[in-house]
Amino acid sequence: MNGAVGFGVFSLRGEPPRVGFRVGNGVLDLPANGFGSDFSVPGLGPFLARGRTTWEDVVRRVAALVRGGADLVPLELVTVHLPFEVADYVDFYSSLEHATNLGRLFRPDAEPLLPNWRHLPVAYHGRAGTVVVSGTPILRPCGQVRAPDDPAPRFGPSRRLDFELELGFVVGVGSTLGRPVPAGAFRDHVFGVVLVDDWSARDLQAWEYQPLGPFLGKSFATSVSAWVTPLALLEDRLVPAPPQDPEPLPYLRTAGEWALDVDLEVELAGTVVSRTNARGLYWTMPQQLAHATVNGASVRTGDLFASGTISGPDPGSEGSLIELTWNGARPIRLGDGSTRAFLEDGDELVLRGRAGGIVLGEVRGRILPARC
Asked: Which one is catalytic: 98, 119, 125, 291?
């Protein structure tokens, strides 16, 4: 289905939100085309909970309607909404290049990767309640910061606001507490993928993260696409993952090809500042799910698992400003002649992705001044 984007929630003026499927610049109204009550609600939850057989059947029916020339609602007439209620949110650290870059920045005289990094998919739990749909303005966060030469921390707006280019997967069918989800069961639990921007206040994060990790520097906002692209449309984009050394423990071993070949780009204030591909991620989606549940933790419909920042090996393929500007030491130049070390008020950031003929829903956000 060339031009397909995915399932989401939309509304027209004066009408309640419902589920649609976006193709190019149009939306197929699923309730209006006889898809039933699961699609007449303002969220994908009931559909996601139905399971893989239903998912794939609906995708086939949608494809048949689109090929047959079904009427589409023009995209400019619709208002989009958060596509699913986020049950839990986990952010991984799956890019070898990103982890290596940050290690070199913050530990220049030590090994860039910490001892556990090649043995397990490192992650932290985020805040589900601040996941917002693409297009939602992002308020510059406030908090405590302490520069290296400051005698004490100060309170104020973040001066090192950053983006993170990520790819997330969305759980459809939950699991039972106490029963791990093996990597081989990934397709039975996961419905599809979305682009994710896990906004980061680097100065807040630097002061707070030891010893327990990110908190206020991350929890203020995470943006996701308005459209969830089903795995059923991405099967031909699965390719071999990068080699892993040492070999993972048995519960993390996967059969088949599980790297997702998706071209990605970041546009900042009208200038493309980064291009990369998700296929380079060291840890794959099935490994992330297997690790997140190996201790018996359960997953729920609407759980969001993000990859962590996706960076490539070449200049201009980094997925965050902290890497692109080397923590602000090397500002980048934009098309209008201005420079950026970190995000400024008024900046609009756009993430885009394409998997062959399939277009992932973009993620867009504009920075608003702080309200400290």
From this structure: 98
